[in-house]
């Protein structure tokens, strides 16, 4: 568990970069930080690993305040991935990945073994271990950067615009790869991005900041259905209901009934957009949601999605989609 209690950061010129932010992040959860440029996202990230010192408040990792951690041990608990990657140009890929392990005093044999394990984990051939950063593409360098962040087996990964400098195709591919790895590794991830769609896709929970303050935190659907103030809707673009459906999964509105409709099914984690499309195609009012073993978790219906449309329409004006979804 990562917990921030009333965290503030004020610079000597009286700029309030972070203003009284409190937040809890569960183990294995991905939190995405979004907000306008200069809102304090990156500063908040750097306060967690003490690259920047907080002015006031407390940050707890595993119940222990970070100022009570040995700095070296704290760095072992936290991996750090940035947009510029920050690979050492004079070191090979293997040496870059093993750098933290070398500082930790890990033997050379175990360093090599861990580097080979991690390069495969991020989807690269072990032959890349002998290359230098200048010989890598942007996507490959970012994979190596992520492998390096995992080297010490940290419980927390901080990611600051990790895919921001990549082309759209590579960016989408790495997003999918990170989510796939997260299903296996279950790390606690704090992910800073300026891209709203990326935030909605990657985050189990979204945190929106402005002027150093936390404006709203919650599941992606909350920002569309229950915005706390007009700024939230303005920033997210809440009136686009079709886009909303791509961000909400069936798990967020499922009815927990074990009965089988025996008409159609889809896996847990499917977006409401895909669920609705399948119901339209098969001309059915509801659909079963299954877990990874094929067990029925419950159902999602067109009526339930229509109710979401009606909720948004109440706050933001009429939504034509609510008239097209059957009951």
UniProtKB/TrEMBL annotation:
- Which GO biological process annotations does it have? amino acid transport; glycine betaine transport
For this UniProt entry, the molecular function terms from Gene Ontology, in alphabetical order, are: ABC-type quaternary ammonium compound transporting activity; ATP binding; ATP hydrolysis activity
**Name by which UniProt lists this protein:** Quaternary amine transport ATP-binding protein
The UniProt entry's sequence similarity note says:
Belongs to the ABC transporter superfamily.
Instruction: List the source organism.
Output: Dethiobacter alkaliphilus AHT 1
Please write the reaction equations for the catalytic activity of this protein.
a quaternary ammonium(out) + ATP + H2O = a quaternary ammonium(in) + ADP + phosphate + H(+)
Keyword set for this entry? ATP-binding, CBS domain, Cell inner membrane, Cell membrane, Membrane, Nucleotide-binding, Transport
Tell me the compartments it is located in.
Answer: Cell inner membrane
Q: Specify the superkingdom.
A: Bacteria
The UniProt record lists the ABC transporter domain at 2-236
Q: Known SMART domains for this protein?
A: AAA
Q: Which InterPro entries match?
A: AAA+_ATPase, ABC_osmolyte_uptake_ATP-bind, ABC_transporter-like_ATP-bd, ABC_transporter-like_CS, CBS_dom_sf, Gly-betaine_transp_ATP-bd, P-loop_NTPase
Top EC group: translocase
What Pfam families does this protein map onto?
ABC_tran
């Amino acid at each position: 568990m990562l917990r921030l209690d009333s965290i503030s950061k004020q610079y000597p010129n009286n700029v309030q970069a972070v203003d009284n932010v409190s937040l809890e992040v569960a183990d294995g959860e991905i939190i995405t930080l979004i907000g306008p440029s200069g809102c304090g996202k990156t500063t908040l990230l750097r306060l967690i690993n003490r690259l920047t010192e907080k002015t006031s408040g407390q940050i707890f990792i595993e119940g222990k305040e970070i100022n009570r951690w040995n700095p070296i041990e704290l760095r072992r608990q936290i991996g750090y991935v940035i947009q510029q990657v920050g690979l050492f140009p004079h070191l090979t890929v293997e040496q870059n990945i093993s750098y933290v392990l070398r500082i930790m005093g890990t033997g050379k044999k175990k360093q090599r073994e861990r580097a080979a394990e991690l390069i495969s984990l991020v989807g690269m051939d072990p032959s890349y271990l002998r290359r230098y950063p200048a010989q890598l593409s942007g996507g490959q360098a970012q994979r190596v950067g992520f492998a390096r962040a995992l080297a010490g087996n940290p419980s927390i990964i901080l990611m600051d615009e990790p895919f921001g400098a990549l082309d759209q195709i590579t960016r989408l591919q790495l997003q999918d790869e990170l989510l796939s790895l997260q299903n296996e590794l279950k790390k606690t991830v704090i992910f800073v991005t300026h891209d709203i769609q990326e935030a909605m896709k990657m985050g189990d929970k979204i945190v929106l900041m402005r002027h150093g303050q936390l404006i709203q935190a919650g599941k992606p659907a909350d920002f569309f259905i229950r915005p706390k103030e007009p700024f939230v809707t303005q920033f997210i673009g809440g009136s686009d209901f079709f886009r909303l459906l791509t961000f909400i999964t069936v798990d967020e509105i499922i009815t927990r009934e074990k009965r089988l409709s025996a008409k159609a099914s889809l896996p847990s984690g499917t977006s409401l957009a895909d669920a609705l499309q399948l119901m339209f195609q098969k001309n059915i009012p509801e659909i079963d949601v299954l877990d990874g073993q094929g067990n029925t978790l419950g159902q999602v219906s067109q009526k339930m999605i229509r109710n979401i449309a009606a909720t948004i329409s109440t706050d933001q004006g009429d939504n034509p989609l609510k008239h097209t979804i059957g009951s």
